[in-house]
Structure prediction request, 256 residues.
Amino acid sequence: MPKFSKDESRNFLPSIIESRHPHRMHRIFFLTAMAFLFTACAEAPRTSEPSPLAAINPTHTPTASNVTPAANLPKRVTTDLIDRTFTATGDLTGDGNEAHLTIHVTGHSMTSAFTWSLTITGRGGATLFKVERNDAWLDGFFAQDGYEAGCSGYIACKKQYYFVDLPTAVFDSLKPTDSHESKNDLILSNLRETATAFFTKHDVPPADREVALSEMRRTLTKPGFRVLDVPYSPVEWDSPTIWVKSIHMFVPYHQD
Prediction:
């Protein structure tokens, strides 16, 4: 076996490298570099930070906030309720005593049927007259042209009737009448029949009926008596009544 001197062994590696093909040299350097990088990555400390992609993931659910929500505020209640009151005070009966008249109109809204009441009270709050009406039966008529005068359209005509014409008509009817409205022979001749039907309905004792009829005749033959006219609808009226003090009632004196 050949022996190599010290000088010969020093020249052995260069001779092998020089004898290799150039592209193999490149491969050696490439493999060496890759091994170094792999070792460096393996030794690098790992972190728990999420990938940046997680932050923009559209299905990502954010963590719950630790901020306490504000207490629920009370909701504002809106209402369209109709509640109108019309009043008058004075000698409404013609007997010299003060009385109070109240018309109260109510409804869930302008598009619902209205109810209303008319009340007359005297001394000490005693009720002299009261009527209550539910106008559901006539509500649809306000949409008809000409049903209520001086207006056009359902809402406008309801406002005209309930808020203007109804209270005005009642208040005006209790003003003293003109002289030409007294001494109506036809009314006087039918008075017993008209009043008696009312007396019977309201259980007025027979003895009180004659006194009441005499009082009604005296009232109707004097100018300036007061008449309570209560509308039944924009085109209909209840029978007109006058105050009869002897029985403390408004009694009809004429049938329309």
